[in-house]
Design brief:
By secondary structure, the chain is α+β, with helices and mostly antiparallel strands. The protein contains 7 helices and 14 strands.
């Protein structure tokens, strides 16, 4: 993108946020002013914002990347800037008493569906049709599941935007009905759609291995505890996991309607 990197303090981490143009950088510096660190070693871009990168039917598209992975694609400047907080938070450890799963999160009126990132193309193709059947994709790269109740936790970001700047952003670029508020709500977990992966040499063909990959697949939290394994076993025992080798957008729409 060829822009300076803003250093943000998140817990005991220094994370880099890069913007592709001055408007995005101004907003980011205002929103995260309390957490901006000047004069330290510049970290790599953990999160990148690209405004107006692509034109679709005459409308500019705005993108957010976590590392090299595109996470958000939208025509709303506000949505992509508001999503930064959750993606910074994703580099921090899971909440106490939870297991983190790397998945797309589809929030509906009765709960949430988690979709393996391997099926991202289907989610992208189906996003508008999913909204028509009552499911909105949360702008998060991962989610924490309560170890006791197995509820999904819409964790509020721990890198908190400055309130006045956040209010200005909402006034100029209001939230739309395609945004999920991360307010700490706990939602029933309706289903997890996991990808069936080829076995590694010496690996036993156990269905739980596919969900374990979800809990270790982000790369930056690739540790897996006995408590996490217990959560995975209970998710399978409760019939919440559907393991499939492939899923199309049509399959996805059919699955969330069930």
């Amino acid at each position: 993108m060829g822009a300076d990197i803003i250093t943000i303090e998140a817990g005991d981490l220094l994370l880099g946020v890069r913007a592709n143009e001055p408007e995005a950088e101004r907003w980011l510096r205002d929103l995260y002013a309390p957490s901006v660190v000047e004069g330290e070693v510049t970290p790599p871009p953990n999160v990148s914002v690209a405004l107006g990168e692509k034109e679709v039917v005459g409308r500019s598209m705005h993108l957010l990347y976590r590392g090299q992975t595109r996470e958000v694609r939208t025509t709303s400047v506000g949505r992509v800037l508001r999503a930064v907080a959750a993606h910074l938070d994703s580099w921090l450890p899971a909440l106490p008493g939870t297991t983190r799963l790397s998945a797309r999160v589809l929030v509906g009126g009765n709960g949430a569906v988690l979709v393996d990132r391997h099926f991202d193309p289907a989610v992208v193709r189906a996003e508008r049709r999913l909204r028509r059947v009552g499911f909105v994709q949360a702008d998060v790269p991962s989610v924490d599941v309560d170890s006791e109740t197995l509820d999904l936790v819409l964790r509020p970001p721990r890198v908190v935007p400055e309130p006045a700047a956040a209010a200005r952003l909402d006034a100029v670029h209001p939230p739309g009905d395609d945004e999920v508020v991360l307010d700490g709500r706990r939602l029933p977990l309706l289903r997890i759609l996991a990808s069936k992966r080829p076995l590694e040499p010496g690996e036993r063909d156990a269905a739980a291995n596919d969900l374990v990959w979800l809990a270790t697949g982000m790369g930056d939290h690739d540790r897996f505890s006995k408590a996490d394994l217990d959560v995975v076993a209970r998710l399978f025992a409760n019939g919440l996991v559907d393991v499939r080798p492939n899923v199309s957008d049509v399959d996805l729409l059919d699955l969330v309607r069930r």
